[in-house]
Amino acid sequence: MISRLRFAHLPTPIEELPRLSSTLGGPRILVKRDDQTGLAFGGNKTRKLEFLVAEAQDQGARMMISAGALQSNHCRQTAAAAAKFGFECTLVLTGQLTGQASANLLLDELFGAKIVNVADRADRDRVLKETFDKAVADGKKPYLVPYGGSSPTGVMGYAFAVEEFMKQGVHADWFVFGTSSGGTHAGLVLGQRLFGYQGRVLGISIDESEEWLKTHVSALASEASERLGKRIDFTPDDVLAMDQYCKAGYGVLTDAEREAVRMFAGTEGLLLDPVYTGRAAAGLIDLIRKGFFKKDETVLFWHTGGQPALFADGYSNSI
Ligand SMILES: *Cc1c(COP(=O)(O)O)cnc(C)c1O
Question: Is-catalytic flag, 72?
């Protein structure tokens, strides 16, 4: 039996994007609104946290510790979940602090999270471990939420998201979405197998190499499958990932993301974020222009959230 709390706003709607589709002269495009999952503006981490918070409770934890970038959506949603379920929360955040906290970082503070800032990413793992060990020594019973919530436990959220999709009775030939720590990707791959989704699952990399994603996502999906009673051995060949849209580096806003954010906003009134969904959508737009999808196919863009970052210093003045 896998423990799960129920606080996400599910099922998330599936909507048509006809004006985007005709602007691109492309296939039918749908969007699955996982930016509307609830919990502090929503996003893909809500589904994972339903399982992660339940596991923390089962273990008798009283504190949640996680790590990410200063504008991490994952950390914002973890901090909100911690507040909601009465955990202390400490976040190890990488990046240069400048002036007043904005966007996700501001929200972390509103949720009462304690911030440990690490200027250099190379120090992140060490500081995270020290923070965790100190919390243990202080008797705080911490629960470590891994980067992006992408443990086998977190992966459950997206395995069951495919079950939800299947029950919605909508046809899609492709799922296209941004992939980074791989938990969303692994969940969709596992859910595809478990619930008989016949289409393809294409992750557009935000920051990792295609090779790393194929290896990591297949291993994570295999490990997660064990929780459901029977191990399925996924191989790297079972995972579809593209890494040609992340060359600029994590969080770097280029003309491609800018165009995607403006095109979705301007044709559909739909907001993307500058780091994840903007980049994934830039990949989607490029693939449509190149004729990668057949005209009679239906492409479902799985919106993973992240919009608070639109208001972060550094993005709001350059988008
Ligand atoms: C975390 C995140 C992703 C990537 O999900 P992973 O499960 O870490 O691969 C995509 N989009 C947004 C908005 C995110 O916050």
Answer: yes
**In the block, residue with structure tokens 């399925």:** 232
List the domains of the chain with CATH numbers.
14-40+151-311 (3.40.50.1100), 61-140 (3.40.50.1100)
Tell whether ligand 1 has an atom less than 6 A from the beta carbon of residue 181.
yes
Asked if residues 240 and 200 have their Cβ atoms less than 8 Å apart, the reply is: yes
Task: For residue 205, list its beta bridge partners.
Answer: 179
Report the relative pairing of strands 114-118 and 88-94 from DSSP bridges. Answer: parallel
C-alpha 319: how far from chain center: 21
Tell me whether the omega of the peptide bond preceding residue 11 falls within 30 degrees of 0, making it cis. Answer: yes
pLDDT at 174 over 90: yes
> What span, in angstroms and rounded, lies between the C-alpha atoms of 243 and 295?
24
pLDDT in tens, 74-106: 999 999 999 999 999 999 999 998 888 999 999
DSSP letters, 178-222, are EESSSHHHHHHHHHHHHHT--SEEEEEESSS-HHHHHHHHHHHHH
Residue 182 near ligand 1, beta carbon < 6 Å: yes
- Would the pTM count as exceeding 0.85? yes
Ligand 1 atom with minimal separation from the 183 CA: 7
DSSP letter (8 states) at residue 100: S
Torsion on CA atoms 23, 29, 32, 35, rounded to nearest 10 = -20
43 lines ligand 1 (CB under 6 A): yes
- The CA R_g of the chain, rounded to the nearest whole Å, is 19
Torsion sign (Cα): 294, 298, 304, 308: positive
Residue 11: how many CB atoms within 10 A of its CB? Answer: 15
